[in-house]
Amino acid sequence: MYPLITHVDSDHSLPESADVVIIGGGIVGVCTAYFLAARGVSVVLVEKSGIAHEQSSRNWGWVRTLGRDVAEVPLAIASLKLWDEWPTRLKHDTGFTRAGILYACESEQEIGNKVAWLEQARPLGIDAQLLDPAQIEARLQSKMPGSWKGALFTATDGRAEPGIATAAIAEGARALGVKMLTRCAARGIETEAGRVSSVITERGENKCKPVVLAAGAWSGLFCCSSPMTWPWSGTLLIG
Ligand SMILES: Cc1cc2nc3c(=O)[nH]c(=O)nc-3n(C[C@H](O)[C@H](O)[C@H](O)COP(=O)(O)OP(=O)(O)OC[C@H]3O[C@@H](n4cnc5c(N)ncnc54)[C@H](O)[C@@H]3O)c2cc1C
C-alpha cells in the first residue's frame, strides 16, 4: 500500500535565474528552500516526481533524541523545537506531536547499552529515563506484548505525519517566494571557469551559482552522471 501524500502543485515555468537552485523536493530540499527564502534568497526547487514522493513520505515520522549518536543530540534537540514551531510559522499542521518514544530491551545487555548511552547523553539535556517492566506496563496502559526486561523512554520526543509534513513546509516555502517545479528532473550542472553557472533541467536552464543537491538516494547517481569536474565551487549538500 502506498502512503497518502498531500499534493503540491507545480509552478508553470522555470525562471531564467535564481540565487540558488535546489535539486530534490523531499524534506531536506523543502526545508532548505524555506530557510533560504526566509533570509531573502531567491530559490528555485526542481523535483523529478512530486513533492515528498520518495523517502520523505515513506518514513515512520519519528523526531527523536533517543538513541542518537551523542554528537547529534544538540541538533536533535534543536530539531524538536523547530517541529514545535512549524504550525505557527506555516499556519498549517505537520501532524507533529510529542507523543513520547520508547525503546524496549529484551536482554540485560541491551539495557546496559542504553544505560551507557544515557550517561553520555544526559549532560546534553536529554530527559530520557529507564523503565522497569512494571513501569512499561503502566506507561503503555496494557500488558506487555513481549518479554521486555526494561525500556528507555523519553516523553518529549515525538512524531510528525510524513504524508502532510513535507507538503506543508513546501507550501510555506512557496508563500515566501520559492518557485517549485515538479515533474522536472535536473539533468546536469554547467560550469564557467570552474564555477557553477547553471542547472540544466527537463524544462530548460536556470542560471544560478550555488546548487543544493538534496536528491536523497539519487544524489550519488546524479554526481556520477554530471559531466562536471569535482569538486565544484558551489554549495553541495548530499542528502
Ligand atoms: C522505512 C523508513 C523509515 C524511516 N523513518 C524515519 C523516522 O522515523 N524519522 C526520521 O527522521 N527519518 C526516518 N527515515 C529517514 C528519512 O525518511 C530520510 O532521511 C529523509 O526522508 C530523507 O529526505 P531527503 O529529502 O534527503 O530525500 P528524499 O525524500 O528521498 O527526497 C529526494 C528527492 O529528490 C528527488 N530527485 C532525485 N533525483 C532528482 C533529480 N535529478 N532532479 C530532481 N529531483 C530529483 C527525488 O524524486 C526525491 O523526491 C526513514 C526512512 C525509511 C526508508
Characterization of the model:
- With 239 residues, the protein is an alpha/beta fold.
- The protein folds into 2 domains: 103 residues, FAD/NAD(P)-binding domain (3-Layer(bba) Sandwich), CATH 3.50.50; 99 residues, D-Amino Acid Oxidase, Chain A, domain 2.
- Helix content is 32%, strand content 21%.
- The protein has 7 helices and 12 strands.
- The strands form 4 sheets. It has a 4-stranded parallel β-sheet, with helices on one face. It has a 3-stranded antiparallel β-sheet with strand order 4-6-5.
- Helix 1 runs parallel beside helix 6.
- The site of flavin-adenine dinucleotide (FAD) has 29 residues, from helix 1 and helix 2.
Task: Summarize the topology.
Blueprint: E1 20-23, H1 27-38, E2 43-46, H2 55-58, E3 62-63, H3 73-90, E4 101-105, H4 108-121, E5 129-131, H5 133-140, E6 150-154, E7 158-159, H6 162-175, E8 179-181, E9 186-192, E10 195-201, E11 204-207, E12 211-213, H7 219-225
Parallel strand pairs: 1-2, 1-12, 2-8
Antiparallel strand pairs: 3-7, 4-6, 5-6, 9-10, 10-11
Helix pairs in contact: 1-6
This protein binds flavin-adenine dinucleotide.
